[in-house]
């Protein structure tokens, strides 16, 4: 059993970027964990992070413009260099759809993502994937385009299940 107050303090003292990195690390450990008790502890700390994100969103916390967007902040990566496997990408997409999500950038950017479980969030994710697939900058990045298309297909097939 974890010490909730210890992890609440750790989480509270991290910047938005540090907290997002910590979240990605814990999610990876959670996915790779074979121990039920370890998985339970990891899930508890992930819950503390989500509570902190909600608090920061309510307070309008902002520590400058983001170096990366929400998808990247949550650990979503495709392609040859830093790409992650499909099931992990879709788990991240599910987490984003359901929420809560970290505060990234500024309130205007966060409004684009809508509420947890909303059609706005679903549509924003769809626009994100379509813009990456159709970006002239990416036209020779065949693996990334293929993975974005796979994720878009997944989103269109099952994404609506995560809308409240």
> Helices and strands: which structural class?
mainly alpha
- How many structural domains does the protein architecture include? 1
Radius of gyration: 16 Å
Query: How does the overall form come out from the CA principal axes?
Result: globular
Number of strands: 0
Q: Measure the end-to-end span.
A: 32 Å
- What portion of the residues fall into strands of 2 or more residues? under 5%
Main sheet attributes: strand count, strand direction, barrel closure = none
How much helicity do the residues have? 55-70%
Low-confidence residue ranges: none
Total helices: the number is 8
Average pLDDT confidence is 89
Oligomeric grouping of the chains: single chain
Sketch the topology as an H/E string, one letter per element. HHHHHHHH
Q: Could you describe the 3D structure shown?
A:
With 164 residues, the chain is mostly helical. The chain has one domain. Helix content is 64%, strand content 0%. The protein has eight helices and no strands. Helix 1 crosses helix 3 and helix 2 packs antiparallel against helix 3. The radius of gyration is 16 Å and the shape is globular. The two termini are 32 Å apart. The model has no long low-confidence stretch (mean pLDDT 89).
Record keyword descriptors for this entry.
164 residues; mainly alpha; 8 helices; 64% helix; globular
Question: What's the topology here?
Answer:
Blueprint: H1 4-12, H2 16-32, H3 36-59, H4 70-73, H5 86-98, H6 107-112, H7 119-133, H8 142-158
Helix pairs in contact: 1-3, 2-3, 5-8, 7-8
């Amino acid at each position: 059993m974890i010490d909730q107050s210890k992890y609440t303090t750790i989480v509270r003292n991290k910047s938005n970027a540090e907290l997002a990195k910590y979240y990605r690390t814990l999610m990876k450990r959670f996915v790779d964990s074979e121990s039920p008790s370890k998985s339970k502890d990891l899930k508890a700390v992930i819950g503390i992070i989500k509570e902190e994100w909600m608090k920061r969103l309510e307070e309008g916390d902002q520590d400058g413009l983001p170096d990366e967007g929400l998808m990247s902040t949550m650990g979503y990566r495709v392609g040859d260099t830093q790409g992650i496997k499909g099931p992990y990408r879709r788990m991240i997409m599910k987490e984003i759809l359901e929420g809560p999500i970290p505060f990234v950038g500024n309130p205007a950017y966060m409004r684009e993502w809508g509420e947890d479980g909303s059609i706005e969030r679903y549509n924003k994710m769809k626009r994100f994937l379509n813009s990456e697939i159709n970006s002239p900058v990416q036209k020779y990045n065949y693996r990334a385009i293929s993975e974005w298309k796979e994720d878009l297909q997944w989103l269109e097939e099952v994404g609506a299940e995560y809308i409240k």
